[in-house]
Amino acid sequence: MSDTKRTIAAGLLIGLLTLFIPFYLRLIGIMPEEGVSITPSSSTGVFVEENLVGDNLNDRPKSSPSDLSTENISSIDFSIITDKYLASVSSLSGGSFLSFEINSLQKDGYKYRGGYNKEGEYDPGADVNLMFSSPGPCSPCLCSENTFFNEPFEILSPSISSGQAFNLYESDSLVVKMKLVNDEYNIYKTTTFYADSYVIKHDFIVDGSSGPLFVLWREGILPTEKNLYEELTYSSAYIGQSKEISDITLNPSSLEDSVPQELFVGKTDWVAIRNKYFINSLISSQATGGSLEGKAVDLSAGSFVPSYSAGLKFDSSSFSVNQFFGPLDVDIIASSKTYLDRVMNFGWLPIQPFSRSVLWILKKLHLFGLNYGIILILFAFLIRIITGPLTKKSYQSTLKMQKIQPQMKKIQEKYKNDSQRLNREMMSLYKTSGVNPLGGCFPMLIQMPLLFSLFIVFRSTIEFRGAPFFGWISNLSQPDTIFNLPFNIPIYGNQVAFLPIVLGISMFLTQRLSMATMDKNQRPMMYMMSAFFFLLFNSFPSGLNLYYTIYNFLNYFQQKSLKGK
User: How far apart are CA 292 and CA 239, in angstroms?
Assistant: First the structure.
């Protein structure tokens, strides 16, 4: 094959690899599958009861939450203000949330700023709001097979007037007791709010019930990220049954897109709805089934996002539900006392121990009061210390291989028609020269789980959300954009970020160093790879680019020092 043909073939190979990247990211757990994915639990048997909650409930309207009109019903609205969140609550349904905002005045509150207002516009300075602007009375609500109890409950205690605000501090809690009495049911609902927790406890006693009861959250969870494409790659609804997790995912392109209600039977630990950085979950040890559903809503001007519904089924007339409504922080979510942390994106199973370890180290370093940007730089040095000996061994092995290249070519030319003899002679050459043909690759393969875990942690954990560094790098979870282009470039995007440019320079310098003794015909492919990664990393978080830029320059200086010896 001629040099020109080799170059063309290399270019085509890079193009194919580019197309394969999204599938590979899904394989290792960085991106979910597109469209709708439903993963049944093998141990509990799901989807076997098509009428678990009765025809009337299954046939309920699937349009906007406002379909359940409450304009002729008087209710009492009040507010709960804690160091963790600010919630507006209605006496409808025995305590239905009207809004839920994360309090940005708490420690590291920058993580909880930025979200969508009532007009569907992104406001980087607003506290994170996790509820759509027109919630219905099912957030959460209680229902039987045929009835939604979406009426206003009578508040028994404490005495609450409409518009009243309750401020809870430190270890304070507020217990609100309500009841609803009609011809068929006597319902008693107790809701407990805690000042120091994202957990809200709901206790139910239902007199007169002869069939199963359900606690539902029908209002989804509002997106919080400006980049909706990236946000939707993490948005899903889940159900946990005996530590087996099933999920549904919807990436809508119109209001007609939906995921039909899926019913699950058997002991159910929790149901949950998440976006990229936050989660809303209903948790109970008494649930005997659950349901998941998804529909599309128009966030603003044709930007369609999923709104998931999730519910728990109960066969008894007295039961408790703990609701965890807050950030997907691995330490904070531990307060739910569940395995909810498994919905967090730590990558493919073999990579997860590395990802969790990396996150643990970063969080421990942050406890010393260090800025996360400084931590990422220090972490790049730490990883270079760990991987430095492997890089050295790989580089030395590569140099040995390059030295015997002339002899290898002679053997290949001499025995090109005798493959068995060619293999014997090549192995003999490796043995006499003390060269391991895999010596250059094996040390790099050892590093791959660590590098993948770093990519996952820096890209998807809440620790870097809104975290400032200095100057123009005001949010380590977003690209460090210095200006926007009036047009979009494939792969690159329409913003120009500074760190990817520096990262591209570091990659070019490192590759030029390693290409000094490389076959000239292979150089165009290496340059094309550098250009491709420069384009790809332009849309990545600045924290990830900061780490890889420092790491690559350290790698360059190490290789330069090794070459000088």
Answer: 8
Q: With beta carbons less than 8 A apart as the criterion, state whether 546 and 499 touch.
A: yes
HSE, CB side, 13 Å, CA atoms: give it for residue 469: 26
User: Is pLDDT at 39 greater than 90 in this prediction?
Assistant: no
Strand partners, 283: 270, 322
Considering the chain, what percentage of its residues have pLDDT values greater than 90?
A: 52
Q: Is residue 420 over pLDDT 80?
A: yes
What are the residues whose beta carbons fall under 8 Å from the beta carbon of 405, sequence distance 6 or more? none
Q: Quick one: 376 exposed, middle or buried, by C-beta within 10 A (0-12, 13-18, 19+)?
A: buried
For 275-367, list the strands marked E by DSSP.
278-283, 289-300, 303-314, 318-327
What are the beta bridge partners of residue 239? 246, 271
Q: Do 187 and 153 meet the contact criterion of CB atoms below 8 Å apart?
A: yes
Q: Where in the chain is the domain with CATH 2.70.98?
A: 31-344
Strand 303-314 versus strand 318-327 pairing type:
unpaired
pTM: 0.81
- Helix, strand or coil, per DSSP, at residue 125: strand
pLDDT at 22 over 70: no
pLDDT at 82: 97
Are 277 and 333 in contact, with CB atoms under 8 Å apart?
Answer: no
Per the CB < 8 A criterion, the answer to whether 108 and 192 are in contact is no
Q: Phi first, then psi: what are they for 289, rounded to 5°? A: 175, 180
| Cβ partners under 8 Å of residue 279, min gap 6 | 221, 272, 273, 324, 325, 326, 327, 328, 333, 340, 343
Q: Which residues pair with 189 in a beta bridge?
A: 178, 204
Closest of 378, 383, 545, 530 to residue 472, by C-alpha:
545
Mutual angle of helices 542-563 and 499-514, in 10-degree steps = 20
For the chain, counts of helices (H) and of strands (E): 11, 22
Residue with tokens 């207002």: 117
Q: How far apart are CA 151 and CA 352, in angstroms?
A: 46
Verify cis geometry, omega within 30 degrees of 0, for the bond prior to 140. yes
Residue 466 contacts residue 113 (beta carbons within 8 Å): yes
DSSP secondary structure code for residue 434 in this structure: T
Instruction: Provide the greatest CA pair distance for the chain.
Output: 97
Q: Which CATH number fits domain 31-344: 1.10.1060, 2.40.128, 2.70.98, 3.30.70?
A: 2.70.98
Residue 158 CA to residue 191 CA, distance in Å, equals 11
Token representation of residue 40? 């049944």
Which run of H or of E encompasses 19? helix 3-27
Give the SS3 label for residue 259: strand
